[in-house]
Amino acid sequence: MVLNSCGPNEDAQSLDDTLFEESTANGLSYYKNGDILEAKAPSPHGSFKLAYNDVAAQALDSEGELPVGASFPKGSLLVKEVYKDGQVTLIVPMKKDENNDFAGDGWLWGEYGPDGSVVYSVGEKGKSCTGCHGGSPNRDLVRTYDLH
Known about the structure:
This protein has 148 residues and is α+β, with helices and mostly antiparallel strands. It has one domain: Chalcone isomerase. It has helices spanning 12-23, 54-57, 130-133, 144-147, and strands at 29-30, 48-52, 77-84, 87-96, 107-109, 111-112, 118-120. It is globular. Mean pLDDT is 88; it is low at 1-9.
């Protein structure tokens, strides 16, 4: 399923449902061969795997990372699968969509339980996310490469 810009009748709940569905679909590629990356301060998410869609993967360098100062193209999806005791406990996607009414700093931000329950809605527009994600170096609000 493709996540489009917010239309006049689209609400945060339907967008959360769509973002969760896209985040758990097959076909994503994994950073560091899908290894679980151990939590390092100041990351609030814990240990995780990071996955990308094909759009995001096109922006990565030979190390599988976004170069400093570069940006992901519209439609890029990055998904953290947070683990505890070997089980996925949280799905944390970022979807690049600068024109979406629910975007915060150009990204849709969400957090969902493994069952799709909303923990942090796109309706919050990333207001609890962008402060930490805006740190240096600038990698289009993605912190993984510099914290893990």
